[in-house]
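Notebook entry, structure prediction.
Reason for the run: the old model in the group folder had no record of what sequence produced it. Starting over properly, with the input documented here first.
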Amino acid sequence: FMGPTTYERHHYLFTGCEPSIGGMVIDFDGHVLGMANFPGTAYIPSSIVLKCLDMWKKFQCIPRLHIGMKLSPIKFLDPIHVERIFRKCNIDSGLIVKEVSHGSIAEELGVRPGDVVDSVNGECVATTVELENLIMRICENHLDQGGAIGSCMDILVGILHMRKGRKGPRHTLSLRLNVSDDVEVFISDCAWSFDDRILTFPP
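New structure, fully documented this time:
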């Protein structure tokens, strides 16, 4: 991107209008790992892209659940932060709740930023890729069994409640979520936030 001029770039590598949207992410051995996801430095792994294509062929849509939470894996935090969480809470795996959508079922059931999701429908989740694959598999099974876009389904989410920087009780919450093929509208609430630079949780 930084080298050639606009007219000399290999535009077939990109599906979007910006140079970093939709381009292939490849490793030093030439293997395609996924697709660039702009803005930011994240990318969509090949497993997710292929699953989306497969579901589009089957259902002419890509169903997913609107979970009402923004999550970040513990294992990808800096090592000092991971050690601090382990010493204070005795956990080193799971997804930290960064934000909860205002008015969502997760908020109604008491999920707050700083809580940790460790399982969905009894399966452990340690990364957002694992969570996304699991959610798409749940949606695929739902449609295969006669469910429809716009219907609701119940999923079980294992939550470790964190309060004042300490691990609280673990609960399994039943979230009744909408199966949708549309973008999830996330409503931020500035009253609740989680700063991953320091281990602070809401009371």
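Summary: The helical segments are 46-59, 79-89, 105-108, 128-144.
The old model has been moved to the deprecated folder.
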